[in-house]
Design brief:
- The chain is of the alpha+beta class.
- The protein folds into three domains: 113 residues, no CATH class; 115 residues, no CATH class; 183 residues, no CATH class.
- A hairpin with a 2-residue loop joins strand 12 and strand 13.
- Helix 5 crosses helix 8, helix 10 packs parallel to helix 15 and helix 12 packs antiparallel against helix 15.
């Protein structure tokens, strides 16, 4: 038995003297007579100011004899006492380890004090979901700050938070829900844990993580909502939904989502009810005509030219007199050019994006018409279709509409007006199949649509 204990102590001391493989691992030995305090931390994760101001002075003053004594004297919350085997797992999350050595022999237990360095940007205005009324604060990349923004607006005992760790990087995450929606929250927690096991290395952001969830796989329509507004998140929580927040992500994922929620904006909460109804009717009309304008022109101009009045036919003939391309090629080039332009604008700084978009649209459109590449009518239709698409309430719906225009043009070119009907049939049938947290994503009927148009959503 004595030899066994000596071997264990020798192995423990040998493991502690092994040089770490990472260069940001630092060790400091505080020697106080017969006791030595081995302090280890990662400079990339731990706040060394906390160590200098709260830990070192207390150790020098009281000289504790054990890890339990250190836990009592240190003015730091959430201190853990574990073994040497867990040292690396604690250090990579921002802890500082303190090992007590007496006469050159390390004690078996180690104290871990949380000293995580917090380097996040402050709360700023939203980048995407602009609202002319209401609060101007948005989520940041800090999970604790985001939870604080929600708690400040919803100080209720019914608000619950379930903490999780996702992925191989052990990223902290939180599921926020009201007490009445515990079953929905458990369903989301189960999907998050399963996706974290199946795809541990693909967790880059909460939007990327949503595509890995069970209801987010193999679907063109995102079955979850994303918002950067704490006020919108609180509104959704009070309406029976749950939210997922993740460290390092500036958005919250909301579920279960519904298709009519994509037409709801945060500014609706601050407008009179008649105005909200009018705006929501306009959004639905914009959604329909954004997918109908250019395909309808291509179908009628290709197969059903006689549907136009005589004066309209004359205008179209004059407009397309020098255009060498078919209506489909003409519309396809313009829609593709709009998508490329929006992608280029998204990569520019905010001060340049708006002016660059206007200048590029005017110059390219005017030059294309003067060169005879496209017709005046097509330029007007594509511009109107783009404006209708940009009138969408959410970024997800806006991106979806830009991508759906291309297959709708293809169906209109192949089959004409019946092709447009087939496209809408496939679109609606796919919407009915999508589910969000095992609930239908689309419920077209009197009750859900009447609730949306009445401004209650």
């Amino acid at each position: 038995m004595p030899n066994t204990n000596k071997n264990k102590k020798a192995n423990m001391n040998a493991n502690m003297n092994v040089k770490p493989k990472t260069d940001d691992w630092h060790t400091y030995l505080l020697e106080l007579q017969e006791r030595t305090y081995r302090i280890e931390w990662l400079s990339s994760m731990a706040d060394q100011q906390i160590m200098r101001e709260r830990i070192l002075p207390m150790l020098q003053q009281y000289r504790p004899r054990s890890s339990e004594d250190m836990k009592l004297i240190l003015p730091i919350a959430d201190i853990e006492i574990r073994t040497h085997r867990e040292k690396h797992a604690f250090l990579i999350t921002g802890y500082i380890s303190i090992t007590l050595e007496t006469a050159g022999v390390a004690h078996p237990d180690v104290l871990y004090a949380p000293c995580k360095s917090i380097n996040y940007r402050s709360v700023e205005e939203p980048k995407e979901e602009y609202s002319e009324s209401g609060p101007k604060d948005a989520f940041t990349e800090s999970l604790n700050v985001n939870l604080n923004l929600i708690r400040r607006r919803l100080m209720s005992e019914q608000l619950h938070v379930r903490m999780l760790t996702v992925g191989s990087g052990k990223l902290p995450a939180a599921v926020v829900f009201m007490a009445d929606n515990r079953l929905t929250a458990d369903r989301l927690i189960y999907q998050v844990e399963q996706s974290s096991i199946d795809h541990p290395k693909a967790l880059l952001d909460i939007s990327n993580f949503a595509t890995l969830l069970y209801n987010g796989k193999h679907t063109f329509f995102e079955p979850f909502e994303f918002t950067e507004l704490p006020l919108q998140t609180v509104h959704m929580l009070e309406n029976g939904k749950v939210a997922l927040l993740m460290e390092g992500s500036r958005k919250a994922m909301i579920g279960p989502a519904s298709f009519e929620d994509t037409f709801v904006a945060s500014s609706d909460l601050f407008l009179p009810l008649p105005q909200v109804r009018a705006i929501r009717y306009a959004r639905v009309i914009c959604f329909v005509f954004s997918l109908l304008l250019t395909p309808l022109y291509v179908a009628v101009a290709t197969y059903n030219f006689e549907m136009f009045p005589l004066k309209v036919i004359q205008t179209l003939l004059i407009s397309r007199h020098n255009v060498p391309f078919s209506p489909f090629v003409e519309a396809f080039m313009m829609e593709s050019l709009v998508m490329v332009q929006l992608e280029a604008i998204a990569r520019l700084p905010n001060k340049l994006s708006q002016s660059a978009g206007v200048v590029a649209g005017i110059i390219i459109g005017t030059a294309a018409v003067e060169a005879g590449v496209i017709s005046n009518v097509m330029l007007v239709l594509v511009s109107a279709s783009s404006l209708l698409t940009l009138a969408s309430a959410t970024v997800q719906l806006r991106n979806m509409l830009f991508l759906l225009k291309l297959p709708s043009l293809l169906m209109a070119m192949v089959l004409g007006l019946p092709g447009i009907c087939v496209f809408w049939f496939l679109l609606l049938s796919r919407l009915f199949v999508v589910r969000s947290l095992d609930r239908p994503f689309t419920l077209f009927g009197f009750n859900p649509m009447s609730r949306y148009f009445k401004g209650k959503g």
